[in-house]
Amino acid sequence: MALVAITRDVSANIGECALSFVQRSPIDVDRAIVQHHGYRRALESLGCEVIALPAQDALPDAVFVEDVALVLDEIAVVTRPGAASRRGEAESVAQALAGYRPLLRIIAPGTLDGGDVLRFDRDIFVGQSARSNADGIAQLRALLAGHGYRVHGVATRGCLHLKSAATQVADGTLLVQPAWVDPAIFAGYRLVEVDPAEEHAANALRIGAGVVHPDCFPRTRQRLQDAGIAVTTVDVSELQKAEGAVTCCSLVFDTVPAVGVTTGAAAPA
Ligand code: CIR
Question: Given 17, 186, 206, 246, which is the most exposed site by the fewest CB atoms within 10 A?
Fold first, then answer.
């Protein structure tokens, strides 16, 4: 396994970011940059080769590279983000990915944010959010059918993306916020619920045998550890003010995927 993490430097204008469910509050850009460096170091400590794309200062949300692409074992899908202000972010990430995977694309009128895409091997759950529309989900289903993936639309409520509400934290195991997605959708998986006092704690980034998780959620961290999951903590408080979390700041994938073999090891999406 050779993991790569594509990231992008924080925009100087991150304070102008799109917001949906978080109240706007001033973002300390210098602090956000320091926290983002810490996030990159965490990925490196977990074995990732980190690619740092230069900041796009005209695009406030460009640090959240997860939303503009989806990297699977065989191909990558360049998305068309639901927020018009974010559509200019995709092309440079597509260029960075082109050396690793053949590229497919979501086109108008479809919209899809990578934050809505939750992969379990050949099953791909996609949040039917304000950012990912029915056309985008149908396009994704058609693009991936030939590669043996099943795409399932999932209703979300009260949150930005499906991965605000649920992320994979180990083989067959989900960390879930039941207020934002119906856990019954994931019947058959082992579920770890966030602590009720930590509303935004369901977004964890799985890398290898452990997860990266914000340090401000100690109760949910304990639940993960009790479930046998190793947790690496990061301080991303300034990025959280931009409605970001830990999955959204990188695209992590294996440069030499075992295509056709189900390992569940890298959990790239
Ligand atoms: C947005 O509203 O698009 C950004 N402010 C936050 C995007 C976070 N993305 C993610 O969690 N996948």
Answer: 186
